[in-house]
Amino acid sequence: EIQIAALDSLNYLVWQARNHGRRKALMDISNEIVLDGILVELLGAPNSWLRQRSVELLGLLSDQPYELRPQLEYLLQEDSDTGVRTCVATALGQTAARWAIPVLLQALLDPNELVAETALHALGRVASPDDHIVVYILRELSAYGQKEDEETTRLAHAARTLLKKWRRITGGGRQKFA
Fold first, then answer.
1. With the C-alpha atoms ordered 164, 166, 171, 173, is the resulting torsion angle positive or negative?
2. Contact in structure between 138 and 163 (CB atoms under 8 Å)
3. How many Å apart are CA 71 and CA 59, to the nearest integer?
4. What pLDDT does 171 receive?
5. Cα dihedral sign, 56-59-63-64
6. How far apart are CA 11 and CA 16, in angstroms?
7. Neighbours of 37 (CB within 10 A)
8. Rg (the chain; Cα; Å)
9. For position 23, what pLDDT does the model report?
10. What angle, rounded to 10 degrees, do the helices at 154-170 and 113-126 form?
11. How many CA atoms lie within 13 A of 64 on its CB side?
């Protein structure tokens, strides 16, 4: 489809500008994309590939438009396609969107383990050891699978790994993060 090819081309241009230090080009492209308004429409497209490519593009932009927050939250929580939900979590992590911490925490309950794990990794980029509710939830997740009769999930393992990383960074004691 033409729209998907166009989004892929825009993704490539934005990626090139971002990775080659072309800040002005990145800002110009980002502004044009946001001002055009088509991205808002594409986030609600019936085609899941269009929604996913649109989210990928948003993740590369210099700033995510404030008015898209409710739509991104909706896509992460309600989209029927796991690829779209995973992509939203990734984009929120890439852009370090602190406003998304509550919705990323909710995404830890996603029935699809890949979506939940991606949300956890996004939290690792967005949140910090100072976000006490996040630390508490990660501690609870990491405790899952500690008993002999419970299978350790990838999500519990990822939560333990993130807590260990934060412990190393802050020099925090076991009682705070473990």
1. negative
2. yes
3. 14
4. 80
5. positive
6. 9
7. 11
8. 18
9. 87
10. 10
11. 26
Place of tokens 């899952």: 144
9: exposed, middle or buried (Cβ count in 10 Å: 0-12, 13-18, 19+): exposed
The residue extents of the domains of the chain are 2-97
Kindly give the confidence (pLDDT) of every residue in the chain, 178 residues in length, as a single tens digit, with 9 standing for 90 and above: 788 888 899 889 989 998 888 889 888 888 888 788 888 889 999 999 999 999 999 888 866 777 889 999 999 999 999 999 999 999 999 988 899 999 999 999 999 999 999 999 999 999 999 999 999 999 999 988 666 556 668 899 999 999 999 999 888 655 455 5
Assign 3-class secondary structure to the chain: CHHHHHHHHHHHHHHHHHHCCCHHHHHHHHHHHHHHCHHHHHHCCCCHHHHHHHHHHHHHCCCCCHHHHHHHHHHHHHCCCHHHHHHHHHHHHHCCCHHHHHHHHHHCCCCCHHHHHHHHHHHHHHCCCCCHHHHHHHHHHHHCCCCCCCCCCHHHHHHHHHHHHHHHHHCCCHHHHC
AA identity, residue 116: A
CA distance 162 to 142: 10
Joined together, the tokens standing for residue 20 give 């080659």
Amino acid in position 161: T
Q: Note the maximum CA span of the chain.
A: 56
